[in-house]
């Protein structure tokens, strides 16, 4: 039996919902594993690809363990109103929950049947939590969904090259139509110099845990064998690494351009949103037309069922007249990911990919977004 803060238990239980709520053929994976000992309550949830472990202080009267529905535990604790919750393990894997005048009894599974998990002692390398979260935000969106997972493109490449006594951390993601890359200086992380692949859903789980722990400045990272470990505060995320091969991406990035468009990202994305209301629902295509040195860009879209739309936008453009088509959503997401006051869009011709970069000359990191054009 143990007693624990209701608010802390609710907060820690909520973190588990993204893991334990996924479709599975193993019912026990819908459960959270609970173990109380030595003044702490330990919570674990897993889908066998990603595991989240949380710990919180507790008054432990008698050590024990249980495996119960993660969703049901969270629903109960969320609706309680007291300051603390008492939980006791019962016979046949039941647990009893008490809070003020409320009492709940519900069944669970044999905790010994919960999947065994990889264990690590580190050594963990610390890097900025804010930096890692930002790097994930600026890349993971460009990786393919799980149902399009051929050729490793539903993963994010995580690579850290040694740079003197430090490291140069790079994250890369692609879905075959676009590619997002970001690179920043960091501490060197052992085991990543040739790159490791983290599944998209797993690295988004890491990002979610980082967001829950933004009061902390650093996150510890360690890679060993087929797993990666991310430790922040009292949270530990373990991810199973993919053994697929990531595409040769460096040759995809154009080395030169014949035209450069400079846009204000807010104005440009607002225009994209307006014009996209009339895009083709299947292709999401939008056309960009440049009239040389006139300083204007025309955005247009059309739908065979409803009609067409166009809008002119004042821009800075150096290059020859050009018409080129893109998937509007992909272009929008790439420009938004730059997070800068100005954005550069480098163009070659109507049949070649464009390169989107931050327009801030004093940027402390490298960021590139490559987008394939669409045939109009």
Structure description:
The protein is an alpha+beta fold. It has three domains: 2-113, DNA Polymerase III, subunit A, domain 2 (DNA Polymerase III, Chain A, domain 2, Roll), CATH 3.10.150.10; 125-240, Roll (DNA Polymerase III, Chain A, domain 2); 253-371, DNA Polymerase III, Chain A, domain 2. 19% of the residues lie in helices and 41% in strands. The chain has helices at residues 6-20, 70-79, 129-137, 200-212, 265-276, 328-338, and strands at residues 2-5, 31-37, 40-46, 50-57, 59-60, 64-69, 84-89, 95-99, 102-106, 125-128, 155-163, 166-174, 178-186, 196-199, 218-224, 227-232, 235-240, 259-263, 285-290, 296-303, 307-314, 316-318, 322-327, 343-347, 354-358, 366-371. The strands form four sheets. Strands 14-11-12-13-26-25-24-18-22 form a nine-stranded antiparallel β-sheet. An eight-stranded antiparallel β-sheet has the order 6-2-3-4-17-16-15-10. The longest helix is centred in the N-terminal third of the chain and has 15 residues, at 6-20.
Summary keywords:
376 residues, 3 domains, eight-stranded antiparallel sheet, nine-stranded antiparallel sheet, 26 strands, alpha+beta, 6 helices, DNA Polymerase III, Chain A, domain 2, 19% helix, 41% strand
Report low-confidence residues grouped into runs of 5 or more: none
Computed over alpha carbons, the radius of gyration is: 25 Å
- How is the largest sheet built, in terms of strand order? 14-11-12-13-26-25-24-18-22
- Measured by DSSP, the beta-strand proportion falls in 35-45%
What is the terminal separation in angstroms?
Answer: 67 Å
Give the CATH superfamily of the largest domain: DNA Polymerase III, subunit A, domain 2
Shape: elongated
The total count of helices amounts to 6
Query: Which CATH architecture of the largest domain would you pick?
Result: Roll
- Kindly state the number of beta strands: 26
């Amino acid at each position: 039996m143990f007693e624990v803060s209701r608010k802390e238990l609710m907060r820690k239980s909520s973190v588990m919902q993204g893991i334990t709520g996924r479709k599975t053929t193993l019912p026990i994976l819908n459960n959270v594993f609970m173990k109380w000992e030595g003044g702490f309550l330990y919570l674990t949830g897993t889908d066998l690809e990603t595991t989240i472990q949380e710990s919180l202080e507790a008054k432990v009267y008698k050590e024990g363990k249980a495996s119960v529905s993660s969703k049901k535990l969270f629903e109960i604790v969320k609706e309680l109103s007291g300051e603390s919750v008492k939980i006791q393990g019962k016979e046949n894997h039941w647990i009893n929950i008490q809070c003020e005048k409320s009492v709940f009894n519900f069944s669970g599974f044999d905790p010994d049947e919960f999947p065994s998990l990889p264990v690590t002692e580190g050594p963990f390398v610390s890097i900025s939590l804010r930096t890692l979260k930002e790097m994930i935000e600026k890349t993971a969106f460009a990786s393919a969904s799980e149902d399009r997972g051929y050729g490793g493109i539903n993963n994010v490449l995580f690579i850290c090259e040694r740079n003197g006594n430090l490291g140069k951390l790079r994250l890369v993601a692609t879905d075959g139509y676009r590619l997002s890359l970001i690179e920043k200086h960091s501490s060197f992380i052992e085991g990543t110099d040739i790159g490791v692949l983290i599944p998209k859903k797993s690295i988004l789980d890491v990002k979610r845990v980082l967001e829950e722990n933004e009061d902390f400045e650093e996150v510890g990272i360690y890679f060993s064998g087929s797993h990666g470990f991310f430790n922040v505060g009292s949270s530990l995320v373990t991810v199973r690494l993919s053994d697929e091969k990531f595409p040769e991406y460096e040759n995809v990035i154009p080395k030169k351009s014949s035209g450069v468009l400079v846009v204000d990202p807010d104005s440009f994305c607002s225009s994209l949103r307006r014009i996209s209301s009339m895009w083709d629902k299947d292709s999401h295509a939008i056309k960009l037309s440049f009239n040389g040195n006139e300083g204007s860009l025309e955005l247009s879209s059309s739908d065979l069922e409803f009609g067409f739309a166009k809008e002119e936008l004042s821009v800075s453009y150096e290059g020859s007249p050009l018409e080129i088509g893109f998937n509007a959503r992909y272009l929008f997401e790439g420009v938004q990911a730059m997070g800068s006051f100005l954005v550069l869009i480098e163009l070659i011709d109507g049949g070649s990919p464009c390169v989107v970069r931050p327009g801030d000359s004093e940027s402390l990191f490298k960021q590139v977004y490559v987008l394939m054009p669409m045939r109009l």
